[in-house]
């Protein structure tokens, strides 16, 4: 993989409600090279794009994703934000919105199939970085369903990893290894916020194609991406929103820059 690419984290999620069609369409309009999504499974076995374990923060409903059916989730509005603190410090960039934007189709839950369809329908190459959550509980079910979805779209065996329209990610080594076993030609990212001694030296496990450090980690160790690159591994860094962090990624040679602000980040990387 060559050149720096902007990955729209949950879509253009600083401007639109995360993981909605509206957020992804804005990201594409802003020229994002790739989209990022989190994937969970509903009670009736559908893959949906949602970050939290519960729907409370990001929708008009309440409850745990794995205990709700897709039908029930489809009736919720995911662009009418609730005012609860997000899960992680990285999410503190999000501001609850007073009023939702866009029509009903832009505000409801997206299935993974729908998002993949959107990516595949673009007239230019766009990648999808898909992150699986809580993989241990399901013992490989989510990864198997993701692999089946790629097969349905005819993209589970790209001729070259560089050209793969989909990249699979997880903080879980077990999940990344399962992806590798299920679809060896699809690139994988091992996400992390702390690095082992081996990773700090630039060594990744063979089943992970890319390293996925947080920007917090890169701030502490700006040479990490170069050491990984010296051993043939590209870097995906998250979540990169302010000007100093974008500049850090540019200088550090980060290959994929995941941001909630794809338009501004793209302009900054281009030096405009
Ligand atoms: O892109 C990786 C990043 O999204 C991981 O953190 O919590 O935003 O899914 P989180
Ligand atoms: Ca994510």
UniProtKB/TrEMBL annotation:
Record-linked PROSITE patterns: GP_PDE (PS51704)
Keyword entries, A-Z: Hydrolase
Location of the GP-PDE domain: 4-269
GO MF, one example: glycerophosphodiester phosphodiesterase activity
E.C. no: 3.1.4.46
UniProt keyword Hydrolase, yes or no: yes
Enzyme class: hydrolase
Name used for this protein in its record: Glycerophosphoryl diester phosphodiesterase
């Amino acid at each position: 993989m060559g050149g720096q690419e902007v990955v729209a984290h949950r879509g253009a999620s600083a401007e639109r409600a995360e993981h909605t069609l509206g957020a992804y369409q804005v990201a594409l309009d802003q020229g994002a090279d790739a989209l990022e999504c989190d994937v969970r499974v509903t009670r009736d076995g559908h893959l949906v794009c949602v970050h939290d374990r519960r729907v409370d923060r990001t929708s008009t409903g309440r409850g745990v994703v794995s205990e709700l059916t897709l039908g029930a989730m489809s009736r919720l509005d995911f662009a009418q934000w609730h005012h609860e603190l997000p899960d992680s410090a990285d999410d503190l960039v999000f501001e609850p919105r007073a009023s939702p934007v866009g029509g009903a189709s832009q505000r409801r839950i997206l299935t993974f199939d729908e998002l993949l369809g959107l990516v595949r329908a673009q007239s230019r190459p766009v990648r999808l970085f898909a992150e699986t959550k809580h993989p241990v509980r399901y013992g490989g079910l989510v990864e198997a369903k993701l692999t089946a979805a790629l097969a349905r779209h005819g993209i589970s065996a790209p001729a070259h990893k560089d050209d793969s329209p989909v990249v699979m990610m997880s903080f879980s080594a077990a999940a990344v290894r399962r992806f590798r076993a299920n679809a060896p030609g699809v690139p994988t990212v091992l996400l992390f916020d702390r690095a082992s001694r081996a990773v700090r030296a630039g060594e990744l496990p063979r089943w992970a194609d890319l390293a996925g450090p947080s920007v917090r980690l890169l701030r502490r160790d700006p040479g990490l991406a170069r050491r990984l690159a010296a051993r043939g591994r590209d870097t995906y860094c998250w979540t990169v929103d302010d000007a100093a962090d974008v500049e850090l990624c540019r200088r550090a040679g980060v290959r994929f820059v995941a941001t909630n602000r794809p338009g501004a980040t793209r302009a900054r990387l281009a030096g405009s």
